[in-house]
Amino acid sequence: MKLTSLPKARILVLFVLWLALLGLLAMFAPAFFQPAVLRSILQFSTVLALVSLGQALVVLGGGAGIDLAVGAMVSLVAILSMLAVRAGLPGFLLPPAAILLGGLLGLGNGLLVTRLGLLPLIATLGTLFLYGGLALALTGGGPVPGVPAWLFPFGRGTLGLVPWHFLAFVLPVFVLVALILSQTAWGRWVRAMGFRENAARLAGIPVSRVRLLLYVTSGLLAGMAALVTLAWFGSARPNIGQNLELESLAAVLVGGVSILGGAGGVFGVLAAVLFIVSLKTAMQFSNIATTWQVGAIGLLLILVLLIDRRTVRWNA
Amino acid sequence: MTPFVQARGIGKSFGGLKALDGVDLDIHQGEVLALLGDNGAGKSTFVKILAGAQPQSRGEIRIEGRPVAFASPHDAARAGIATIYQELALSENLNVVENVFLGREVVRRVLGFPWLRRRAMRQRVDTLLRELDAHIPDPLARVGGMSGGQRQAVAIARALDQGGRLVIMDEPTAALAVAETRKVLKLVRQLAARNCAVILISHNIGDVFEVADRMAVFRRGRKIAERQRAATTPDEIVALITGAHPDARTADLAA
Ligand SMILES: Nc1ncnc2c1ncn2[C@@H]1O[C@H](COP(=O)(O)OP(=O)(O)O)[C@@H](O)[C@H]1O
Ligand SMILES: [Mg+2]
Which residue would you say has higher pLDDT here, A99 or A29? Predict the structure, then answer.
């Protein structure tokens, strides 16, 4: 029982948070409930959802797994792929190039963790500054324009209320990852190594190789997120991934993934992403400054960890 | 018939310490062999060498007459030697079926993904547990909530399904209550009945006399005695372990 109760407790918390937010909005800002706002929430959710999925996988795989570089990867991939376009890369190669670049940056993280044995927190803190700094240095801080116009409908268009990138990226990758986690041997390996690495190794699971692939996957998803920002804004911005590490971690933990690894699912993470973006949107709607929004996410993170401590104590 | 395992002149040194010295031992299929001896006598070191967890410093291991050199527990497992590491080897967040097949799941490859074949695995585990007469009511329950004896049964089912022909158990009952110990000892006999070879390390003389066909006593890295159960008594074995027995004194003098 002890093992499931922790994520379950958090899913319950998330549910309560949702109810509270909706209740408050219904009372004080009923104008929030209009199609345009829902559309905007989904529009803003895609990038966070993609990097949170990568974050969730890295955390699930255990070994103190964490990917603080997700935001920096989004920024650097956006910059590098647009610099490549300006240097003559044919426009139609931009999407695969962005995703591939993300995979390479993720590979860098994975190698630091699995080959050099660095603590993930330290390794990805290093690449957060390395990748993020590089994105700024390469551009002097300014945006890189010139995204091919044929990409814009992908970044800005919707089917009904749902943005194309949400339909084309978020839903398929979440369903695919959920299937892999629950229906394939790989998913079992991730849960086993996240929970008890020694047992997994003795059972012959190639723990280091799986972990490397989890960091690569996080990079690939950051690459997809970068592509979405390009198609949305029409230019690469060197700071576009700012704060994504904090927000994705909040989404992963609020969504019920154990920070120790091995337990949790991805649809809780998606629900948490939608909650976080709704919270931010609601604050925007109520004219609360952006700086406070970051503070609110931090508060949320602390709240969830506090609840964890209590649950663990109850179960102990 | 050639013994399944023949160990000849096995020695192991840790720096200046001789943990094992010239151990000869045969292990037969269908037989439970108990290793006895004081703490530090070298029992665990000996089975770790058999299990591929450490290389020997001297001597030779033969499996069915052929010399082998194990570089890892994986090599040993391929040769049919399964070791039941006590707590370490099970993942408590997974259920019985998941643990039995962990790392070697039965899958169907579709689009490159290894999709689990749950029904096939479930049926196999049901069969194994029935054959072992293990008391595990729900194979889909997490191992984390199970008793020590049930966990041993899961580990044994896993070893059997891997095609283990020698199952090594290093103090499997050390942390178990009496009733649980009974069940594990029963499982040990089941393994032998299936023509497995079993090596059992235990400090409990009563348990050993209940299940073992043969006993080997280790003292200070040497094998000082080997007895068929029918040809010895608990008193003699205890005397060999503690050093009160004349054979043990002779061995001490020779060392
Ligand atoms: N990895 C090791 N490094 C150094 N000494 C060891 C190591 N493993 C075992 N020993 C020593 O070898 C001797 C035999 O140990 P062990 O095989 O564990 O004995 P037993 O299992 O019979 O109690 C002991 O003196 C022990 O301290
Ligand atoms: Mg020992």
Answer: A99
Delineate the domains of chain A, giving CATH numbers in brackets: 5-23+35-315 (1.10.3470)
Residue A91 CA, ligand 2 centroid: distance in Å: 66
This prediction's pTM: 0.84
Judged against a pLDDT cut of 80, whether residue B94 lies above it is answered with yes
Q: What is the pLDDT of residues A67-96, one digit of tens each?
A: 999 999 999 999 999 999 999 999 999 999
Q: Does residue B11's CB lie within 6 angstroms of at least one atom of ligand 1?
A: no
The answer to whether B93 faces chain A, any CB pair under 8 Å, is: yes
Question: Is residue B64 in a domain?
Answer: no
B175 touches chain A (CB under 8 A): no
The 3 state secondary structure assigned to chain A is CHHHHHHHHHHHHHHHHHHHHHHHHHHHCHHHCCHHHHHHHHHHHHHHHHHHHHHHHHHHCCCCCCCCCHHHHHHHHHHHHHHHHHCCCCHHHHHHHHHHHHHHHHHHHHHHHHCCCCCHHHHHHHHHHHHHHHHHHHHCCCCEECCCHHHHHHHHCEECCEEHHHHHHHHHHHHHHHHHHHHEHHHHHHHHHHHCHHHHHHCCCCHHHHHHHHHHHHHHHHHHHHHHHHHHHCEECCCCCCCHHHHHHHHHHHCCCCCCCCCCCHHHHHHHHHHHHHHHHHHHHCCCCHHHHHHHHHHHHHHHHHHHHHHHHHHC
Digit-coded pLDDT (tens) for B20-48 = 999 999 999 999 999 999 999 999 999 99
Q: Give the CATH number of the domain where residue B86 resides.
A: 3.40.50.300
Closest C-alpha to ligand 1, atom 4: B14
Tell me, in angstroms, the distance from the centre of ligand 1 to residue B40's CA: 5
> What was the pLDDT predicted at B31?
96
Q: How far is the CA of B183 from the centre of ligand 2 (A)?
A: 22
ipTM above 0.90, yes or no: no
- Which residues span the domain enclosing B89? 29-53+80-254
Per-residue model confidence as pLDDT tens digits over A165-211 = 999 999 999 999 999 999 999 999 999 999 988 888 888 889 999 99
For a ligand 1 pocket test, name from B14, B47, B57, B86 the mutation site with the most ligand atoms within 8 angstroms of its C-beta: B14
B44 lines ligand 1 (CB under 6 A): yes
Shortest-distance ligand to the CA of residue B42: 1
Confirm or reject contact between A262 and chain B (CB < 8 A).
yes
139-168 in B: which are within 8 Å (CB) of A?
142, 144-145
Q: For residue B222, which ligand has an atom nearest its CA?
A: 1
